[in-house]
């Protein structure tokens, strides 16, 4: 009887160790939760939205324009922003229009904000990549240019410069909390 109880406890301990080990592997290498902190991605993401970060997506594919990514902004802080410029591209904004390599690019996720603006209002000040930290003519290899959707209230590549790909934790597109906001966020949103 005592031996049976001991084996039962041993089985439970093995099962728990296996579960913790799998949870650690999933969180460390595949997926992790993140909480949106602040208004920089409004209206797409709200303060305190909870999301899942896909940590392995950029191991098997290149980043794409308008992906929403989480990256290390400093040793203590991670930011969530949208990829706007890819390696080898020139980025500029003039009169609320994004230009990539001199061509205007639609940003459908900003349509709601633009519709609510007064005619003289600006989402962001005009800029060119050369005027920003780093003074690059194009986004360097291994880097991306990111902006928050709430252009008037976002610390992004306009202040931080281009973001090295090795600082990107992963891509995110799933809001899982609060329940009334549960959704997949696409590039067009």
UniProtKB/TrEMBL annotation:
Protein's cellular compartments: Cell membrane; Membrane
Gene3D superfamilies the record matches: Umud Fragment, subunit A
GO cellular component, one term: plasma membrane
Residue spans crossing the bilayer: 12-36
Broad class of enzyme this protein falls into: hydrolase
PROSITE patterns reported for this sequence: SPASE_I_2, SPASE_I_3
Keyword annotations from UniProtKB, A to Z: Hydrolase, Membrane, Protease, Transmembrane, Transmembrane helix
InterPro entries: LexA/Signal_pep-like_sf, Pept_S26A_signal_pept_1, Pept_S26A_signal_pept_1_CS, Pept_S26A_signal_pept_1_Lys-AS, Peptidase_S26
Molecular function in Gene Ontology: serine-type endopeptidase activity; signal peptidase activity
Recorded topology in the membrane: Single-pass type II membrane protein
One GO BP: signal peptide processing
Subcellular location, principal: membrane
Family stated for the protein in its record: Belongs to the peptidase S26 family.
Protein known as: Signal peptidase I
């Amino acid at each position: 009887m005592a031996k049976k109880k001991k084996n039962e406890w041993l089985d439970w301990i093995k099962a728990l160790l296996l579960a913790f080990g799998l949870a650690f592997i999933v969180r460390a290498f595949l997926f992790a939760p993140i909480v949106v902190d602040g208004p920089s991605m409004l209206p797409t993401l709200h303060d305190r939205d909870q999301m899942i970060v896909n940590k392995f997506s950029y191991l098997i594919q290149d980043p794409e324009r308008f992906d929403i990514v989480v990256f290390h902004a400093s040793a203590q802080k991670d930011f969530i922003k949208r990829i706007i410029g890819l390696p080898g591209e020139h980025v500029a904004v003039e009169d609320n229009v994004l230009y990539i390599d001199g061509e205007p690019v639609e940003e459908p996720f900003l349509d709601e904000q633009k519709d609510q603006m007064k005619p003289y209002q600006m989402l962001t000040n005009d800029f060119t990549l050369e005027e920003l930290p780093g003074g690059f003519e194009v986004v360097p290899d291994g880097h991306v240019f990111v902006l928050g959707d709430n252009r008037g209230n976002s610390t992004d590549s306009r202040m931080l410069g281009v973001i090295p790909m090795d600082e990107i934790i992963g891509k995110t597109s799933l809001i899982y909390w609060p329940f009334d906001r549960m959704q997949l966020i696409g590039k067009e949103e």
